[in-house]
Every structure is written in structure tokens, then in C-alpha cells.
Amino acid sequence: MLIGKRIPNVTFRTRVRDESIGGPNPFRWEDKTTADYFGGKRVVLFSLPGAFTPTCSTYQLPDFEKLAGEFKAEGIDEIYCISVNDAFVMNAWGKSQNLEKVKLIPDGSGEFTRKMGMLVAKDNLGFGMRSWRYAAIINDGIVEQWFEEEGYSDNCDSDPYGVSSPQNILENLKSTKIAA
Ligand code: BEZ
Hints:
InterPro entries: PRX5-like, Redoxin, Thioredoxin-like_sf, Thioredoxin_domain
Oligomer: single chain
Distance between the termini: 21 Å
Family: Belongs to the peroxiredoxin family. Prx5 subfamily.
Bound molecules: benzoic acid
Keywords: Antioxidant, Oxidoreductase, Peroxidase, Redox-active center
Number of domains: 1
Domain Thioredoxin: 1-152
EC number: 1.11.1.27
Number of strands: 9
Structural class: alpha/beta
């Protein structure tokens, strides 16, 4: 439970389109820091075991995309999806999902996920080290709400999905607003 803690300061290696490069693959590296993504914003971050995996691609990511307007109405400036996958994989996944609202963050080396304490082995699936499934509301780099799936463990033979769903997070945002 990381409520009240500052998220780790890391550099993410992204690939961005740059038409000035020309040719069949007009992309270049662009480093983005934690401050670039999270500074001065109230965001939802959700983290999942892998791009293109079934639950993530069929439910979690598309549902966040569909519900983006409702999150905005609850005072959320951005929705970020992070995974221990490199920028090439994350860009291809975003393209295949026709994403317009949710932004993908490639944590290829797993540094952010490790420093969040959420890195787990998924060698049982041939994945290596990946993220446990969790989500958080993060306000200017400080964790405001935390949604971690139960059973954090290495080589878990199930993939719990519920607390970190957009529906559950929205419900919490709405009820905490009413309570405030
Ligand atoms: C899924 O999202 O369905 C999934 C995630 C990790 C491993 C296998 C499946």
C-alpha cells in the first residue's frame, strides 16, 4: 500500500514519430521522465502483466479508453497504462487498439515497476519479470489511492482482475467525492 508516497523518479525510453526522419520507419527515441508524465497532474496509472495479453487487451485497456470521459469528469487529467514491455511493443499495442485517450508508458527495463515494489516473476509463462496488476490515482507524483489485485506473488498461476478495473476505480472516485 503506497498511499501518501512519492512514485519513483525514472527515465522511460519512448519511441515517437518524427516525419523529418523520412523513410519507412520515421521514429526516434525520446526520453521521458516521471516528472514529464506525472508532474502537476492528477492521473490514473494502471499496470498490467503484458501488452497484447487477453484480459488486458479485451477488457482493461479498452474499458479505460471507453470510460475516459467519466474519469475526466472526476478530475483526472490523464490515464496512463504501464507495462514491462519495450517502446516498440507498447506502440504496436496502442496502434492495434486504436487508442486516442489512454497513453501507454513503456517500462522496458522494469525499473519503475521494481521501484514501486510491483515486479514479479512470470517465468511460468515464459515472460520473465513483469508487473503485478495494480492501479493508482497519483496526484502530482504522490499516490492518492491504491488498487492492487490480491495474491501478489511470483509465478502466480492465476491472473486476478477486479480491483484495478476502471469500473471499480471510477466507483471509488465517485464515492470518495461524495464523502468529501
Ligand atoms: C491476460 O491479460 O489475460 C493475461 C495476462 C498475463 C498472462 C496471461 C494472460
